[in-house]
Amino acid sequence: MSNTHFYPNGTPGQPWGDAERAQWRAAQQRQRSYHDDVVAALEGLEERFEVVQYGQLDYAPDHYPLFAVVSHEWNPALPTALITGGVHGYETSGVHGALQFLDQHAEAYAGRINLIVAPCVSPWGYERIQRWNPDAIDPNRSFRGEGLIEEAAALMRWMAARGDTLLVHMDLHETTDSDLQEFDPARCARDGIALVPDIIPDGFYVIGNSEDPQPAFQQALIAAVEKVTHIAPADANGELIGMPLQSPGVVWGESRSIGACAGFTDALYATTTEVYPDSPRTSPRECNAAQVTAVCAGLDYALADR
Question: Does the CA dihedral 275-278-280-285 come out positive or negative?
Answer without folding.
Answer: positive
